[in-house]
Every structure is written in structure tokens, then in C-alpha cells.
Specification:
- There is one protein chain.
- The chain is mainly β and 65 residues long.
- It has a three-stranded antiparallel beta sheet, with no helix packed on it.
- The model has no long low-confidence stretch (mean pLDDT 78).
């Protein structure tokens, strides 16, 4: 299978080699192992949205009830 550089799908890493994704319309959102041969062959890369350190990310402000 020729490899394409076009990214057509994304997921969110949840730890322990797992990521959450929605496979396609009508299918259930679920966790999948990154070691699955299908995803291992197609993995394009990863990045971090926010710093990893405690207290370094954005804060949610609570709204009055």
C-alpha cells in the first residue's frame, strides 16, 4: 500500500499506548491500541497541546450557579 502524507484522521492519546477516536460516521467512539498494525503503519506523528507540568496548562473558570 503506498503511503500518503495526507492526514485524514486524528485521535487523542489517553496513555498506556491507547488513543480515543471516532472511526467513521455511525460507528462508536472508542479506545484503540497504537500497536495495532493498521494504526502503526499509518501513524503520522504526535504533539502536545499544553505543557505537561502541573499547573502549567489553561485554567477553567467556574461559573456562578
Amino acid at each position: 500500500m503506498p503511503r500518503s502524507r495526507e492526514v485524514t484522521h486524528v485521535g487523542i492519546y489517553i496513555g498506556q499506548g491507547q488513543f480515543v477516536h471516532a472511526p467513521q460516521t455511525g460507528k462508536r467512539v472508542g479506545a484503540v491500541n497504537l500497536d495495532d498494525p493498521y494504526y502503526r503503519e499509518r501513524f503520522a506523528g504526535a504533539g502536545r497541546l499544553y505543557p505537561a507540568g502541573a499547573g502549567e496548562g489553561p485554567r477553567l473558570k467556574s461559573s456562578p450557579r
